[in-house]
Structures are given as structure tokens and as C-alpha cells.
Design brief:
The complex is a heterodimer of chains A (342) and B (361).
Chain A lengths: L9 H28 L7 H10 L4 H35 L11 H16 L4 H24 L7 H25 L1 H7 L12 H20 L1 H7 L3 H6 L4 H23 L5 H13 L3 H26 L7 H18 L1 H4 L1
Helix pairs in contact in A: 1-3, 1-13, 2-3, 3-8, 3-11, 3-12, 3-13, 4-5, 4-6, 4-11, 5-6, 5-11, 6-7, 8-11, 12-13, 13-14
Chain B lengths: L15 E6 L2 E6 H23 L7 H8 L7 H33 L11 H14 L8 H20 L6 H25 L2 H11 L8 H28 L3 H6 L4 H23 L5 H13 L6 H21 L8 H19 L13
Antiparallel strand pairs in B: 1-2
The chains are: A mainly alpha (342), B mainly alpha (361).
């Protein structure tokens, strides 16, 4: 809605957007630095830089290189994936509260992974990503189909409720599997709440190709998302192939959610909050919103993870718990705005 | 409104029977009475089945002997293990059913159930917090869970208030708070040591596993105290389901009545959650099914209570037996039934529609 007033010169707008994107990059760098330096054993920034650029055998260097760096990388990827997926979903459904977590799509991915582990004997990380993608896509299609039926189409409240119902159902399925298969429970408890604990470099290596494909798909339809924001008819009138935009964007969002969940479990509300923050910074043009959201998502995940590490020192609070606490105020503010509740 | 005792020929709406006892007179919905009687029968049969079935099968005759206090070789299994668990299930189920009925009546929306709008999550967050900080006695926990439920309800109410209470806004904000409170619970679980976490984890999914008299007795007392309030609610319910203009014209203090009904609903839901943990969807399901069975304009409270008890008891039986040595939490089973029902409600498009406030004389 915050389009520049008619007749205003383009250059200041672009400059402002560049400035704010630069600020987002700065915030991301700061979050990465914190994630590398803070933890059970605090490491001075100079030592972190030393370890990054020169390696070394000191204890601090080992911690940074082999524990915190992989974890930070995974956090970066997951945050970007969920933020992009959330932005695409909000654009596609024209619904400000769309988010992989709220709509039950993350839960679809995690239920699929748990089922695959328990019954299909899938044990490789790329297997998880594939299964998670299928689960996310199925859940997305189902939630949207349920919400779109009945009076008024897919309104925010119907989408949220369909998501809540699917969430409850899938949590029940996951719980039933985990209760009856003790072995599955032990290894994959983190799939109930998203967490970065104990992720290594292999995770980041396996999911980044999926992420790239998903990101390319979503960014490819950025113009289409802008047109869709004006309504389906206007989008058609502007020459957009609405069905193609929906399918390509939906595929991209499902791929991104699947990859994010396979790596870290369902991290709640990143996909909800990041796009709104991005829009507040750079306006409603999706070619700017998507990259900015991809910068802000990782900031949220990394900060949540870092805070989780220092909150109750010996044990770690899962990142998903803290992102939910950060994200709910956003949901409340959005819902209190008049346009949504009506 | 209905006790026109002095009138010579009281107006009797169709489908109702008039019951007189001295100066008092009651209108009884015939179909609702029939449904209630049938539900009582089903529930009684379910209870006997619940007590006799399991890893060790006991003959129904023997079960009745044990319940009547006669000495029996099966006294331990039936009397000490299954009976208290059954009592907790019955009481909690009935409480969830009535709580759902009251909240749905006040909000005029089937989705305003305590487990969707964050009340049971508030109760569990408070209870888990207490367990984490080492307050584990069964005497205190029910109060704490009630406090948590009331606090959550108050928060949702305050944040959803914006020059009036809009039903969809209320539900959406409730969903948000439910998620946040679940996270708070998780936060406390991480803080607590391993044993506390395990104890709380069992409690959190909504299970009758290992529940005994220690939970049943306080719950029973608390519910007994609330019975007069529920009787008042059954009467007040009729006025609240009228539209605002009619009620105001009749001189009903709508705001106060609504607040009273909602508070009572929250109390009941929080009490039940304190005993069993959050058993999902019972509060949503029971009143809706009850209303469809009785075809009354209002949600019938007695039938909701009976149905809630039926759902929990009949749900816990397969939960106990399906994967015999391991017990499923009953919440998993009720969610597996309840979630598809919620989807059905959404697909039918009933969620937002206001029911006609018919049925008045």
C-alpha cells in the first residue's frame, strides 16, 4: 500500500530502498557475528575473525569453525527459505497472515519426514528434503482447497482455521508415530519444534541446491505477485498468466518450506514476520520485498538461536520457540488492523 | 421468561413438554430429553466396557461387583487402576463439553472453543511453569491451571477488543496466543531438568495415562461447587443467544450475562486441563454434535456434558488398547477425530454464520 505518491521522482525512492537494504545487510552481518561469538563459551570478535580467515588449532578456532559456523550457515539458509516462502504465500493468497507455520505447511513437511523415517526407512538427508517437499506441497494444496470452499473464498480467518485444523491433525499423526516408535522419537524429537542444535555442514551442503531452485522460482514470479496484489482480474488484464504465476510460485514456496523444515524442523512465524518487516522497509514491490525478506528471515532465526543458547546456559531453547514468541505480536498487530478482521 | 406460573394456560412452544413442581414450572425439550437419556445409556455401557476391557479382561458382572464395593479378585485392576482413571475422564470430558458449549454460545461461533483460542494452552503453560519451579503438589496445581486459563482468556479478550468484540478477530488472536503459549510451555520445559521435563511432557499431550484419585477428587469437588453456576448458565444461555436488540429491549443485561457465561466456561476448561492436560477438540466437538442431535436452537448443556464424557471415555479405550503395551495419549485420538470435523465445518461454510435465535415462545 505504501507506493510512492504519483509524480514523485524515482531516484529518491530507489536510493531509500538501497539504503534500507544496506541496513538489512548490516543487521544480518551483526547477527552472524553474534551467532559465531556468543554461546556457552564467549569468543572475542578478533578471535572469531582470526579463526575464519586463518584457521588454527586453538580451542576457540575449533569451536567457531566446526560447531558455530555450520550452525550459522544452516540458520542463514533456513531463515532465508522460510522468509521467501512466507512472502510468496502472502502474495499468492493475497492474505497478510499466510505463513508456512500458521497454514500447517511446515507441519505437513515434518509429519511426512517422521512417517518416512518410521515406515519407509528413509535415512538420508536428501531423502528427508524430498519427502518434506512432498509433504509441504500436499498440505499446502489441501489447506488452500479447504479454505477456498464455502462462502467468501479463502479469507484470512478460514485459511488460519484450516491451517489450525491440519496442524492439529498432523501433530496427532506425528505424536502417534513417535509414541509407538520409540526409536523414531529419540532421533527426531526436534521435528516438533524447529531447532538448529547440532546441525553440521552436511545439512547446509545438502539443502542449498533445493533452496536455490525454490528461490529462483519465487523470484521469477515477482512481477506476477505485484500484479496479483491488484486483484485477479486486473492481473489478467495486465497480461499476467495468473495460473502460471500461482503454480510456479506455489511450487517454489513448497520447495523452500520443505528444504527449511528438513534442515531445522518447523521454525514458526519467520515466514509471517519477515515479509511484513521487509514491506515496511522497501515498499510493496516484490522485486525488492523478496530479497529484503531473505535478509531479514536469517536475522530472526540467528538471533533467536543465539538468545536460546544463552538463556538457560547448559540447555538450549529451540530457535522455533523464540521465533514464535517474536512473531505472535506481529500476528496480533496485523489482526487488529481493520482491513484483516472485516 | 418461561415461569409464568400464574397464567392459566401457559403458551407452550412446539416440541416442548411442561413440567410442574409446585410453584415452579419448567419447559423441557422432548427430543433433548430423549437424546440425554440415550446418551446416559451409551455412557453407562461405555463405562462398563472401559472398566472390563484392557490387557486383563474382566467380566462385566465382576466389574459391577467391584464398583459396588464387594471384595473381588479383580479389585486391584478395576478398582485401583481403571476406576480412578475413568472418573478423571468422565469429569474432565463433561467439563470440556460444558465449557465449549458456553464459550460457543457467548461467541455465537463454534470455533471459539477453549483449545483453539488459547485457554487450555494458558492452563498448561502455568502448570508446566509450576512443575519447573518445583511446585508439584496436586493440591495447588488445579488452582494454578485455573489462574493460567483465566489469564490467557483475559489477554485474548484485551487484545481482541477494539471498540467492540469482533468474532473473527477474537478467534484469530486466540489462535496466535495459543501458539505463543505453547512456546512458553516449551520454554519452561527446556529450563526444567530432565525429570521435570519428562513428567510435564506426559502431562502436556492430554492423556489419562497414570491419572488417579489424586486428580479425580479435587476435580470432583471443584466441579461440584460450579454446578449451581451451570444451572444459572442454562437459563442465562437463552437470553444471550438472542440478538443484541431483542435482548436489550427485554431489559437483559447482556454484557454481564456474557461475561458470567464466558468466565464459567473458562473456569471449567481450565479445571479439566489441570487434571488431564489439553485434550484437543473435545470442547469443540461435543457441543456441536449435541446441538445436531437435539436440534435445539441453543446448545444443550446437559447433552454437551454427556457427549464430552462419552468422547473422552470412548476415546481413551482404543488409545489404551490399540498399541497394547504402549499407550497413546487420548488427546491424539480426539484430535484425529476432531480435526477432520473442524475441516468439515469449514468446508460447509458454517463457521461465520450466525444461527437464528429461534425456539422462544
Amino acid at each position: 500500500m505504501s507506493v510512492a505518491p504519483v509524480g514523485s521522482p524515482r531516484a529518491p525512492l530507489t536510493r531509500r530502498r538501497l539504503c534500507r537494504t544496506a541496513a538489512a545487510v548490516l543487521a544480518l552481518l551483526l547477527a552472524v557475528a553474534l551467532s559465531l561469538a556468543v554461546g556457552n563459551r564467549a569468543i572475542a570478535p578478533r578471535e572469531v575473525l582470526d579463526a575464519l580467515f586463518h584457521g588454527g588449532d586453538t580451542e576457540a578456532a575449533q569451536i567457531v569453525l566446526f560447531l558455530r559456523l555450520p550452525r550459522t550457515l544452516v540458520g542463514l539458509l533456513v531463515g532465508a527459505a522460510l522468509a521467501l516462502a512466507g512472502t510468496a504465500m502472502q502474495g499468492l493468497t493475497r492474505n497478510p497472515i499466510a505463513d508456512p507455520g500458521v497454514l500447517g505447511i511446515s507441519q505437513g513437511a515434518s509429519a511426512a519426514v517422521v512417517l518416512a523415517i518410521a515406515f519407509a526407512g528413509v535415512h538420508s538427508l536428501s531423502g528427508y528434503v524430498g519427502v518434506a517437499f512432498v509433504g509441504a506441497a500436499l498440505a499446502a494444496v489441501f489447506v488452500y482447497a479447504v479454505a477456498a470452499r464455502g462462502r467468501g473464498g479463502a479469507t484470512p480467518v478460514k485459511l488460519a482455521l484450516a491451517g489450525a485444523a491440519i496442524n492439529a491433525l498432523l501433530v496427532a499423526v506425528t505424536m502417534a508415530v513417535l509414541t509407538t516408535r520409540a526409536a523414531a522419537l529419540d532421533e527426531f524429537r526436534f521435528w516438533q519444534v524447529g531447532s538448529l542444535t547440532g546441525r553440521d555442514a552436511a545439512v547446509a551442503l545438502r539443502i542449498w541446491p533445493f533452496l536455490m531452485v525454490g528461490a529462483v522460482l519465487v523470484i521469477a514470479v515477482a512481477r506476477g505477485l505485484d500484479a496479483l496484489a491488484l486483484g485477479e482480474d486486473v492481473a489478467k488484464g495486465l497480461g499476467q498468466k495468473v495460473a502460471t504465476v500461482r503454480i510456479v510460485g506455489g511450487l517454489g514456496a513448497a520447495l523452500l518450506t520443505g528444504a527449511g523444515v528438513a534442515a531445522a524442523g518447523p521454525v514458526a512465524f519467520v515466514g509471517l514476520a519477515a515479509p511484513h518487516l521487509a514491506r515496511a522497509l522497501v515498499g510493496s514491490d516484490h522485486r525488492w520485498v523478496l530479497p529484503t525478506a531473505a535478509l531479514i528471515g536469517p536475522v530472526m532465526v540467528l538471533v533467536a538461536d543465539t538468545v536460546g543458547r544463552i538463556l538457560y546456559p547448559p540447555s538450549e531453547v529451540p530457535a522455533g520457540v523464540l521465533t514464535a514468541l517474536i512473531g505472535v505480536p506481529f500476528l496480533v498487530t496485523l489482526v487488529r488492523r481493520k482491513a484483516v478482521a472485516a | 421468561m418461561t415461569t409464568t406460573a400464574a397464567a392459566p394456560a401457559p403458551i407452550r412452544p412446539a416440541g416442548y413438554a411442561l413440567l410442574r413442581a409446585g410453584p415452579a414450572a419448567f419447559l423441557i425439550h422432548r427430543r433433548a430429553a430423549l437424546v440425554a437419556a440415550l446418551l446416559t445409556l451409551v455412557l453407562a455401557a461405555g463405562c462398563v466396557g472401559y472398566l472390563s476391557l484392557g490387557e486383563h479382561v474382566v467380566a462385566p458382572g465382576e466389574v459391577i461387583q467391584v464398583v459396588r464395593g464387594r471384595p473381588s479378585p479383580d479389585g486391584l485392576v478395576v478398582g485401583a487402576l481403571r476406576l480412578p482413571r475413568l472418573c478423571v475422564g468422565l469429569l474432565a470430558g463433561a467439563a470440556f463439553g460444558v465449557a465449549g458449549a458456553l464459550l460457543q454460545t457467548v461467541a455465537r461461533n463454534p470455533l471459539a472453543s477453549p483449545d483453539i483460542i488459547g485457554i487450555t494452552q494458558g492452563a498448561s503453560a502455568c502448570t508446566v511453569a509450576a512443575l519447573t519451579f518445583g511446585i508439584g503438589s496436586y493440591a495447588v496445581l488445579p488452582y494454578l491451571s485455573v489462574a493460567g486459563g483465566l489469564l490467557a482468556a483475559a489477554l485474548v479478550y484485551v487484545f481482541a477488543w477494539r471498540g467492540g468484540l469482533h468474532a473473527t478477530r477474537f478467534v484469530l488472536i486466540g489462535i496466535g496466543f495459543a501458539v505463543a503459549l505453547r512456546s512458553v510451555t516449551q520454554l519452561f520445559l527446556t529450563k526444567g531438568d530432565y525429570l521435570v521435563a519428562q513428567k510435564a511432557q506426559v502431562w502436556m499431550v492430554g492423556s489419562l495415562n497414570g491419572r488417579g484419585w489424586a486428580e479425580a477428587v479435587p476435580l470432583a469437588w471443584a466441579l461440584l461447587v460450579l454446578v449451581p453456576c451451570v444451572l444459572w448458565a442454562a437459563r442465562a444461555q437463552r437470553t444471550v443467544s438472542m440478538d443484541d436488540d431483542t435482548a436489550t429491549a427485554l431489559g437483559v443485561r447482556l454484557g454481564r450475562t456474557r461475561l458470567g457465561l464466558a468466565t464459567l466456561g473458562v473456569l471449567l476448561a481450565a479445571l479439566a486441563t489441570g487434571a488431564t492436560g489439553p485434550v484437543d477438540f473435545v470442547a469443540l466437538l461435543a457441543p456441536q454434535i449435541a446441538r445436531r442431535l437435539t436440534r435445539t436452537a441453543q446448545i444443550p448443556l446437559l447433552c454437551s456434558a454427556l457427549l464430552g464424557a462419552c468422547v473422552v471415555v470412548l476415546g481413551d479405550l482404543p488409545a489404551r488398547m490399540l498399541f497394547a503395551p504402549t499407550e497413546l495419549p487420548v488427546g491424539v485420538l480426539t484430535a484425529a477425530i476432531g480435526a477432520p470435523y473442524l475441516i468439515h465445518l469449514l468446508v460447509r461454510g458454517h463457521s461465520g454464520r450466525r444461527r437464528a435465535a429461534g425456539g422462544s415462545a
